[in-house]
Design goal:
The structure is a homodimer. The first copy, chain A, is an alpha+beta fold. Helices cover about 30% and strands about 30% of the residues of chain A. In chain A, the strands form 2 sheets. In chain A, strands 1, 2, 3, 4, 5, 6, 7, 8, 9 and 11 form a 10-stranded mixed beta sheet that branches. A 7-stranded mixed beta sheet of chain A has the order 10-17-12-16-13-14-15.
């Protein structure tokens, strides 16, 4: 194996450390500015520029109501067969449920970017996140184009600004990166994400979570989809804050090739090492999204084991993750495993209650479908005082399993979302 | 038509009026007592006795994890082909996830009732509601059997006590009744329910919502299922507080026959009138359950129209009703229709966003998938200050429709459920 992860900070968030300069993929520049879309007046427009066309692949939401930038971005990638020069993101307005005017607004922003950066219209990839159903003030983004172009740069500060401008109700930037050595040469992989609410991304191969993954490896467009799908399936598609699948979810992977290091299926071990690094970066971003979810008090890792199939394991995980009664019990550090059992029971998966065992924070609470002998509720309660704990369910129906990351449901979540737009 | 509703108070809850003595079905007696299962020390054991065996039908939860009384009650009804003498209910303990001991505890309570009331074991119908996974203290119920028998009576006060003893986190008793004249003779129909949490009953023909329906009409057992299914489908199966389908949901209909009025399919118009009265009583109880749901601030009637099928309409309704983002917006009286549109989009129903319109409290907020021209957010907000309002969705895909009753999601719901058992 010629590739080995040299450095990885995938478990840390940006707020905890500064971005090392040598973690930044070559061939990209970044900028952000404020154009007045966020009511808070914080930076709300971000731009990533590939100096030369980057090979690109994206995954979008499976919601049947999709935002204008999802429609436009998908079309652009199809037209160029996966080539991107410019990514333009605005936060504070989702440009969704805005009809033909929304599409026109999105396209006019792309046009302005294409002119500014002397590329084809279809080489511009647009993203929006924020409130649904409010016309996008395209003119604000268009008139800021020269300014954002003048701010572009490839330092850690520039990337940090990009990562902050795309946030909405997030409280901090979400960043993860990895560096690989391939045949003695470094390859960089850098990911930026935003999340906070409406988080249950169910991404389709053709995903208001926005994720941008940048690498300076050279990867043929044809090889990007399987790389991205592989990484997304166990990460972004296995997280949920509220079960609300957004209209705008997007994950974009761009490869500039500027490192000079080529990754192809022919070199299987390098490709595998890159895929592992990509998965690690995505897993870190996915965890950061849950950890910074609206009002989240606890991050809960669901581990479903001994399911008849992975699909069954995921169905059980989702049923637990979306049960308000389970989530509120977690908020109260309440070892009420009966609610978990009930959620398993209505998951539509064929289960046998007498075979089910449940562990919370390592403590066996339910054995063979009943209260575990000697279960000490106070001990379990103590384990649940931790911000992170695991709920492990053994179904006894087979050998399939899944990990699924979710959160509790707190009064703060309600407050944040009951006061959103009015 | 020989039957006409003479009197109906189905829209009122018990707390708002006293039960008229002539609303009480003949042939039943009721009692309640405290046995120390509810930590509050309030009455927690209830009994309904049919002086002669009543014809009976029940519907139970579709959850694959079912409580012991559901298992035992179903078996008893099968054995007797639908005949019940005694209903024994305890509140504060669901006797669920309690294994073989739970079944044995339930059976021992039924045995004590059978001895007390000199009937067959299988003529006893048991119900439990409360916390899951805690052994039922059967001995408390058994030793209270002589006392509860001594308290039986058929006055309004007795019925009121029955209705109160079955409550858990409910704040008030849920009662509805109707009186019909059939060929000049009165037939009485009386319903009692409890709800509050884990409320998304999906009842199966063979439902912690408990509903007891008593009538003094004489109805052959064979005719009861279609009557009850018809009434449940549009009422209890079209409500949800939190999407959590309970392990204990039960609806029981008992017909004593003591009025002397026989209802048979041969007399179609009488049967139809009775079915209508039954539906009205169930609809009232269903609304009372939502209105008294845990932390409920708003009762929202979803009206889904122009769906391709009723199944599609229901799927859209459930997706909206279970979206935490939609429910929190309602809690904040926030006319954020974009969240409703997003929930429609991920409902898995084939929709066309450009055909969708949404009305909140009578105000058009979304037209053809976008913001309705002239929509005044302040006006809509004002309409949402009402405790009850309607959300009407027009899909433009067909002619099927449904009504579905649900609630907002408040910080109080979180408080109630985060402090439940510890």
């Amino acid at each position: 194996m010629t590739a080995a992860p040299q450095k990885s900070a995938a478990q840390n968030s940006a707020s905890e450390f500064s971005i090392p300069e040598d973690a930044i993929p070559m061939g990209f520049r970044f900028a952000a500015t404020r154009v007045g879309i966020k009511p808070s007046g914080r930076p709300d427009m971000a731009c990533a520029l590939a100096d030369q066309p980057a090979t690109a692949v994206a995954m979008f939401t499976s919601n049947r109501v999709v935002a204008a930038p999802v429609v436009v971005g998908r079309e652009h990638l199809q037209t160029t067969s996966g080539s991107v020069r410019v990514v333009i993101v605005n936060a504070g307005n989702a440009n969704c449920a805005t009809g033909a005017e929304g599409i026109a607004a999105c396209t006019s922003v792309c046009k302005a970017a294409a002119e500014q950066f002397s590329c084809a219209l279809q080489e511009v990839f647009p993203s929006s996140t924020g409130i649904i159903g409010v016309p996008l003030p395209a003119e604000k983004l268009i008139s800021a184009m020269p300014e954002i172009a003048s701010r572009l740069g490839s330092t850690a500060a520039h990337l940090q600004q990009f990562a902050e401008a795309i946030l909405t109700t997030d409280t901090r930037a979400k960043i993860a990166f990895a560096r690989l050595m391939v045949n003695g040469a470094p390859v960089r992989l850098f990911g930026v994400a935003k999340g906070a609410g409406m988080i249950y991304p169910q991404l389709m191969p053709h995903a208001t979570m926005l994720v941008y993954l940048f690498t300076d490896a050279r990867i043929p467009t044809a090889d990007l989809p399987s790389l991205l799908h592989g990484a997304v399936e166990d990460t972004f598609n296995c997280i949920s804050i509220d079960g609300d699948t957004s209209t705008n979810d997007t994950v974009l992977l761009l490869a500039s090739g500027v490192s000079g290091v080529a990754l192809t299926p022919a070199n299987a071990s390098d490709m595998q090492a890159f895929a592992a690094a990509l998965q690690q970066v995505c897993a870190s971003l996915a965890r950061q999204i849950i950890d910074d979810g609206e009002g989240v008090g606890h991050v809960v890792e669901l581990r479903i084991e001994e399911a008849a199939s992975r699909a069954d394991a995921l169905r059980v995980a989702r049923s637990i993750a979306h049960s308000p009664l389970v989530k509120t019990a977690w908020a109260g550090c309440d070892p009420n495993w009966g609610r978990i059992l009930a959620a398993i029971g209505y998951s539509s998966v064929a289960i046998e209650p007498s075979r089910i065992s449940i562990r919370i924070g390592g403590h066996l609470v339910c054995l063979n479908g009943g209260r575990a002998p000697g279960m000490d509720a106070n001990q379990v309660h103590a384990a649940m005082l931790e911000r992170n704990f695991q709920v492990r369910v053994t179904l006894g129906m087979g050998s399939a399993s899944c990990n699924f990351l979710t959160s509790d449901l707190t009064a703060e979540y309600v407050r944040v979302n009951a006061e959103y737009s009015t």
